Design the sequence.
């Protein structure tokens, strides 16, 4: 019998590991899909001073400042906007976290949105160039640094960018746009030579 | 491409934003039909500085106010919804 509770990637039909585009030399950008992540969206009122403290207690560390990321023990918290955060975690770090936050910060809206995004990790010397070809944000490594996050447009799709390090950026796009975004991404990466890695 | 300063996210490209209307209109008390008609339908057709509501739709999704010159598209200031914009009624900054 089919297991309908098993999560399936929105990119399943198009995701093919291997080289593409310019084939000479090292690939300029590597793409890998990050699957099985737990994404928890948290929002509270601006005048609610208590909820951020309760959330911080449940998560284990204070929420990040504007445009920043906070991380500890496999839990990564991204600033989305004033009074809004997104927690990225997986495995044992994710166990019961959503319920723990919800029962602790009772005035905050806590939602598990794990299945609502595709998450792609772009790495390599041209990872920023690929994104920059469709993104109005200044993605130069001296401006968009490790530990910074931004919600912006990439090829007209609203995308959340998470800067891991100089050559690595995670991109979050709404699941329904996943395949369309993928097609844009592959085309944009062709000129640099790309490689799709196995999903993680 | 215009750069617009979101009070929370900083300078971002115009394509991330949506114009949300006149920021100078105030909702009247209930029951005053004439005042409601003006609130819903009547707008000044200004040619210079205009206080406007904008939303950072592709970013933090917050509403904010912007003082924009509708002729030159220059945005001289932005502010949070409850914040103040400079008084440009005489065409010059007075605050």
Sequence:
């Amino acid at each position: 019998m089919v297991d309908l509770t098993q999560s399936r990637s929105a990119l399943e039909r198009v995701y093919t590991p291997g080289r593409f585009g310019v084939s000479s030399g090292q690939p300029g950008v590597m793409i890998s899909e990050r699957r099985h992540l737990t994404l928890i969206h948290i929002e509270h009122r601006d005048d609610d001073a208590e909820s951020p403290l309760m959330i911080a207690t449940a998560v284990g560390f204070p929420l990040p400042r504007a445009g920043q990321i906070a991380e500890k023990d496999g839990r990564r918290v991204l600033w989305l906007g004033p009074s809004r955060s997104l927690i990225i975690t997986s495995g044992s770090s994710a166990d019961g976290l959503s319920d723990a936050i919800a029962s602790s910060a009772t005035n905050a809206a806590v939602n598990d949105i794990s299945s609502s995004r595709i998450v792609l990790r772009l790495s390599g010397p041209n990872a920023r160039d690929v994104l920059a070809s469709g993104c109005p944000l200044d993605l130069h490594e001296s401006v968009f640094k490790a530990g910074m996050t931004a919600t912006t447009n990439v090829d007209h799709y609203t995308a959340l960018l998470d800067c891991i390090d100089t050559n690595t950026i995670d991109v979050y796009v709404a699941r329904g746009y996943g395949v369309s975004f993928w097609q844009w991404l592959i085309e944009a990466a062709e000129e640099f030579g790309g490689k799709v890695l196995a999903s993680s | 491409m215009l750069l617009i300063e979101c009070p929370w996210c900083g300078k971002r490209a115009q394509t991330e934003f949506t114009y949300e209307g006149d920021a100078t209109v105030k909702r009247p008390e209930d029951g005053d039909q004439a005042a409601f008609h003006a609130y819903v339908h009547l707008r000044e057709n200004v040619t210079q500085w205009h206080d406007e509501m904008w939303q950072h739709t592709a970013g933090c999704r917050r509403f904010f106010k912007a003082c924009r010159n509708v002729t030159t598209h220059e945005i001289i200031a932005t502010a949070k919804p409850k914040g103040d914009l400079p008084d440009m009624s005489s065409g010059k900054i007075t605050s």
About this structure: The first strand of chain B starts at residue 3 and ends at 6. Residues 49 and 91 of chain B are 7 Å apart (CA to CA). Chain B touches chain A through 13 residues (CB under 8 Å). Chain B has a mean pLDDT of 90.
